[in-house]
């Protein structure tokens, strides 16, 4: 677990438990609200020194209480402030009611707000706890603010975002900045929440670290090196190529060999001791014309594969990139059921008609890594993929449990999930990584790490992180070939 609280991800329910535990320990909960509101006001003044008017929107809960405190501090700081509330403020309770009572500004109903030039919105309507679609009055204001292009500073989360899933609940503000407290939520990292939050800052309001950590489930985290560096193989001078692992990548037919070569090159650069492309006899020449450090082995069917697998050093495989969809892929996967396998692209789609045929092969200690994009995920897990009540992390975890595999649910917010309930959200991938062939490179990187002995989940997570770092290194305008060349071992 990270040493820094700001690196943790707590769900809204876990953060609510932190607040409750802090109050139970004797910490002044209104003091926490006071510090939160003061931090918001300070951020507003720092970020928008030229604002003509701060429009503070106060909701019916503690997020609204933070907003009332912020409004008071803004006014005391000499700013022009307009206050608007959602619902009946006389029904506020506890700290939120106290915050409202301490704010001398006269508030108006939210429906009366009209955007003016020079406005800056301070959004304290809902925060992370929203679990339903926003009311019509809120949707109207969101649309007005968006149309007028008024900057928004969100408290905790832009109103309308689900703090656990990052989903938009009917409508949501697009914040230029978001300030949250103590830790982040999954919704800050998952799309579209990550984009809608704008620049995110985490402010320590004084809850002791021991209380925060006690309530942190640790099930969902950001994909950083702390999550997997402990299982990386040690660097040893006395070693040889087989100790660093042998990775095999299956090639497609003669006119579909490029994807496998990119996977193979990436696996080699990720640190595998040696890499072999296993190709049909008819595709050997096409592959040989482009390969040097990567070896070649001819295989035309199941019988030849079974014979080759008698070599016990062959333990780790990548199947799918450019391989072709169909019975041959299913037969090869069946032959590899007792080995470590990264199944990608065509390999995944080959099991769309009977996914459990695949899942039944890989029971026991997880040794299968699945790397689906959204379409492939829905082919393999149609009921999970089609469940709109689930967020991306929930879907990836459900899929990992069903398949007994590490699942890399790809996208701008790639989620890596383990059958044991762990999930990581990746954040280091730049936008220009979305290019043809990048998935082939990722499959090879993960295969190279698996070959070196990393467990399936850690190999998948480290591979996704390395993939993002390679893209940053290669820069904008990269091709998959550039990406593979930019991969560096851990």
TrEMBL record:
<dbReference type="InterPro" id="IPR036652">
    <property type="entry name" value="YjeF_N_dom_sf"/>
</dbReference>
<dbReference type="GO" id="GO:0052855">
    <property type="term" value="F:ADP-dependent NAD(P)H-hydrate dehydratase activity"/>
</dbReference>
<dbReference type="Pfam" id="PF03853">
    <property type="entry name" value="YjeF_N"/>
</dbReference>
<feature type="binding site">
    <location>
        <position position="373"/>
    </location>
    <ligand>
        <name>(6S)-NADPHX</name>
    </ligand>
</feature>
<dbReference type="GO" id="GO:0016301">
    <property type="term" value="F:kinase activity"/>
</dbReference>
<feature type="binding site">
    <location>
        <begin position="62"/>
        <end position="66"/>
    </location>
    <ligand>
        <name>(6S)-NADPHX</name>
    </ligand>
</feature>
<feature type="binding site">
    <location>
        <begin position="127"/>
        <end position="133"/>
    </location>
    <ligand>
        <name>(6S)-NADPHX</name>
    </ligand>
</feature>
<keyword id="KW-0511">Multifunctional enzyme</keyword>
<feature type="binding site">
    <location>
        <position position="259"/>
    </location>
    <ligand>
        <name>(6S)-NADPHX</name>
    </ligand>
</feature>
<keyword id="KW-0520">NAD</keyword>
<dbReference type="GO" id="GO:0046496">
    <property type="term" value="P:nicotinamide nucleotide metabolic process"/>
</dbReference>
<keyword id="KW-0413">Isomerase</keyword>
<feature type="domain" description="YjeF N-terminal">
    <location>
        <begin position="15"/>
        <end position="213"/>
    </location>
</feature>
<feature type="binding site">
    <location>
        <position position="63"/>
    </location>
    <ligand>
        <name>K(+)</name>
    </ligand>
</feature>
<feature type="domain" description="YjeF C-terminal">
    <location>
        <begin position="224"/>
        <end position="490"/>
    </location>
</feature>
<keyword id="KW-0067">ATP-binding</keyword>
<keyword id="KW-0521">NADP</keyword>
<dbReference type="GO" id="GO:0052856">
    <property type="term" value="F:NAD(P)HX epimerase activity"/>
</dbReference>
<keyword id="KW-0547">Nucleotide-binding</keyword>
<protein>
    <recommendedName>
        <fullName>Bifunctional NAD(P)H-hydrate repair enzyme</fullName>
        <ecNumber>4.2.1.136</ecNumber>
        <ecNumber>5.1.99.6</ecNumber>
    </recommendedName>
</protein>
<feature type="binding site">
    <location>
        <position position="159"/>
    </location>
    <ligand>
        <name>K(+)</name>
    </ligand>
</feature>
<comment type="similarity">
    <text>In the N-terminal section; belongs to the NnrE/AIBP family.</text>
</comment>
<keyword id="KW-0456">Lyase</keyword>
<dbReference type="InterPro" id="IPR000631">
    <property type="entry name" value="CARKD"/>
</dbReference>
<dbReference type="InterPro" id="IPR029056">
    <property type="entry name" value="Ribokinase-like"/>
</dbReference>
<dbReference type="InterPro" id="IPR017953">
    <property type="entry name" value="Carbohydrate_kinase_pred_CS"/>
</dbReference>
<keyword id="KW-0479">Metal-binding</keyword>
<comment type="subunit">
    <text>Homotetramer.</text>
</comment>
<feature type="binding site">
    <location>
        <position position="156"/>
    </location>
    <ligand>
        <name>(6S)-NADPHX</name>
    </ligand>
</feature>
<feature type="binding site">
    <location>
        <begin position="410"/>
        <end position="414"/>
    </location>
    <ligand>
        <name>AMP</name>
    </ligand>
</feature>
<comment type="similarity">
    <text>In the C-terminal section; belongs to the NnrD/CARKD family.</text>
</comment>
<comment type="function">
    <text>Catalyzes the dehydration of the S-form of NAD(P)HX at the expense of ADP, which is converted to AMP. Together with NAD(P)HX epimerase, which catalyzes the epimerization of the S- and R-forms, the enzyme allows the repair of both epimers of NAD(P)HX, a damaged form of NAD(P)H that is a result of enzymatic or heat-dependent hydration.</text>
</comment>
<feature type="binding site">
    <location>
        <position position="322"/>
    </location>
    <ligand>
        <name>(6S)-NADPHX</name>
    </ligand>
</feature>
<keyword id="KW-0418">Kinase</keyword>
<keyword id="KW-0808">Transferase</keyword>
<comment type="function">
    <text>Bifunctional enzyme that catalyzes the epimerization of the S- and R-forms of NAD(P)HX and the dehydration of the S-form of NAD(P)HX at the expense of ADP, which is converted to AMP. This allows the repair of both epimers of NAD(P)HX, a damaged form of NAD(P)H that is a result of enzymatic or heat-dependent hydration.</text>
</comment>
<dbReference type="GO" id="GO:0005524">
    <property type="term" value="F:ATP binding"/>
</dbReference>
<dbReference type="InterPro" id="IPR004443">
    <property type="entry name" value="YjeF_N_dom"/>
</dbReference>
<feature type="binding site">
    <location>
        <position position="439"/>
    </location>
    <ligand>
        <name>AMP</name>
    </ligand>
</feature>
<feature type="binding site">
    <location>
        <position position="123"/>
    </location>
    <ligand>
        <name>K(+)</name>
    </ligand>
</feature>
<feature type="binding site">
    <location>
        <position position="440"/>
    </location>
    <ligand>
        <name>(6S)-NADPHX</name>
    </ligand>
</feature>
<dbReference type="GO" id="GO:0110051">
    <property type="term" value="P:metabolite repair"/>
</dbReference>
